[in-house]
Amino acid sequence: MAAIWIIWKAGCRRVYQKDFLPSLQVARWVLNFSREIVSTIRNKASRCASKMSWVSWVPPARDVIKLNIDGSALRPNCHAAAGGIFRDFEGAWVAGFSANVGTCLVVAAELWGVREGLLAFKKGFRSIELEVDSMVLVDMLIREELF
């Protein structure tokens, strides 16, 4: 899979950036990347396994709507988007949204998702439980360090 990705990336570079990469250079990238993957798996698998924990969606209380948010960016300060889903105590879909948030960092995209989701308060939801997957954002919200 890594080889296919590197070959595809080299082709895109040739088409969009008019930068031709010799086949030997692409082959070296594939070999080096493959070695890095194997090394990572061998050296870090045991350490990662000890830190793994199962997580699952936990329903909110009966009178609460749960809002799950996620944001993403291709690279730092690149195209970003955010989305969210509202579910009830049985896990049933209530509403959802997605937003193109322009050019920003991932944490900013996540924050846009929180903002968009909390606008649901205007739609009549009064008890909203917010769930995000960014500890950086959680720390910012708890400490009120958004500005």
UniProtKB/TrEMBL annotation:
Stored Pfam families: RVT_3 (PF13456)
Positions of the RNase H type-1 domain: 68-144
InterPro entries xrefs: RNase_H-like, RNase_H-like_dom_plant, RNaseH-like_sf, RNaseH_domain, RNaseH_sf
GO molecular function, one term: nucleic acid binding
Domain of life: Eukaryota
PANTHER family: OS05G0353850 PROTEIN (PTHR47723), POLYNUCLEOTIDYL TRANSFERASE, RIBONUCLEASE H-LIKE SUPERFAMILY PROTEIN (PTHR47723:SF19)
Record-given protein name: Ribonuclease H domain
Record organism: Dillenia turbinata
